[in-house]
């Protein structure tokens, strides 16, 4: 029989994502409603190893749901990748009376939760990443805000690109995943979309597309380039030399991580955070909260980390037709 959980810890790890604060708020308030104590761990696993641990109350999370970033801060921690660091982290949890831990982050953060679970700390992961690259879930906290931020920025770049009759290569985030690029490419009406999952480095095809479009009277050309491909500035120089069309590169960068979360991100984060607490209160451990087939569910961490995810072939084909 699982030991009753009395104190739940919560941390955010890896890259920040809009909606993380909504998830933290839901964890804290749901846990208190279930009769549990809550401790916030600052700066992810790095803060855990440095014992940056604070008591949290309902007041601690007042007036944060609309804020971007994470009030617990976040960091990456090389020490926690080692067996020694993981054991130290588990010992510190026990020292502070933390029976269970909610980890809000991506795949790397879940790997840390997996290690802590093997060392006696009940853990649940909540998918928080703008990249939408966690295979077990159809939605990750922060994606909707990030993709809307990028979409609005690309609209603005398109305006000036049209005015100057330029080609614009706009690089969006997503690490090794092309979901932000695909969504923005379709939503912004881009002529070309370059995704890590599909790009074959055939620049001649892009050059031909630009030249043929100009022959048909097209005055500008928008290319959405995913972070996983990168090298937008050098690509711009090559395309300009080959086509004679002035070409500029714009890298949107970390602006996509910031800003007040959308309603969708606040809603999903709130339900996922609350669900994580209820999973722990039910005596489960080593789980990942997910959204699948219209429902909030949970998977075994080992199973979740073993899953693979790919861009929808149909969506990719439609993006080419529409472009």
Give me some keywords for this one.
323 residues; alpha/beta; seven-stranded mixed β-sheet; 11 helices; 11 strands; 18% strand; elongated
Reported for the largest beta sheet, the result is:
7 strands, mixed
Give the helix proportion (percent range): 40-55%
Shape: elongated
Average pLDDT figure: 96
Specify Rg, calculated over alpha carbons. 22 Å
Q: What structural category arises from helix and sheet content? A: alpha/beta
Q: Please report the distance between the alpha carbons of the first and last residues.
A: 57 Å
Strand order of the largest sheet: 3-2-1-4-5-10-11
Number of helices: 11
Percent strand: 15-25%
- In sequence order, what are the helices and strands, one letter per element? EHEHEHEHEHEHEHEHEHEEHH
**Which spans have pLDDT < 50 for at least 5 consecutive residues?**
none
Would you count the extended β strands for me?
A: 11
């Amino acid at each position: 029989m699982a030991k009753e959980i009395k104190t739940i810890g919560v941390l955010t790890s890896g890259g920040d994502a809009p909606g993380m604060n909504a998830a933290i708020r839901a964890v804290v308030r749901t846990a208190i409603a279930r009769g549990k104590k809550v401790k916030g761990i600052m700066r992810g696993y790095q803060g855990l190893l440095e014992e940056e641990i604070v008591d949290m109350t309902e007041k601690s999370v007042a007036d944060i749901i609309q804020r971007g970033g994470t009030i617990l801060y976040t960091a990456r921690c090389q020490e926690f990748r080692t067996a020694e660091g993981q054991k130290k982290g588990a010992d510190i949890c026990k020292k502070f009376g933390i029976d269970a831990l909610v980890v809000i982050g991506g795949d790397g953060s879940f790997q840390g939760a997996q290690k802590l679970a093997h060392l006696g700390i009940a853990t649940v992961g909540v998918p928080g990443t703008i990249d939408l690259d966690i295979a077990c879930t159809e939605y990750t906290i922060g994606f909707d805000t990030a993709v809307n931020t990028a979409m609005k920025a690309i609209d603005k770049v398109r305006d000036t690109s049209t005015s100057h009759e330029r080609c614009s290569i706009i690089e969006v985030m997503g690490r090794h995943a092309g979901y932000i690029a695909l969504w923005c490419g379709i939503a912004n009406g881009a002529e070309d979309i370059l995704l890590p999952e599909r790009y074959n480095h055939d620049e001649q095809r892009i050059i031909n597309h630009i030249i043929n479009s100009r022959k048909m009277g097209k005055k500008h050309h928008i290319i959405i380039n995913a972070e996983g491909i990168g090298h937008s500035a050098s690509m711009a120089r090559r395309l300009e030399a080959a086509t004679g069309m002035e070409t500029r590169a714009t890298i949107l960068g970390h602006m996509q991580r910031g800003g007040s979360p959308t309603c969708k991100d606040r809603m999903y984060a709130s339900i996922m955070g609350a669900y994580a607490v209820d999973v722990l209160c039910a005596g489960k451990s080593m789980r990942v909260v997910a959204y699948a087939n219209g429902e909030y569910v949970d998977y075994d961490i080992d199973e979740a980390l073993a899953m693979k995810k790919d861009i929808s072939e149909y969506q990719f084909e439609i993006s080419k037709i529409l472009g």
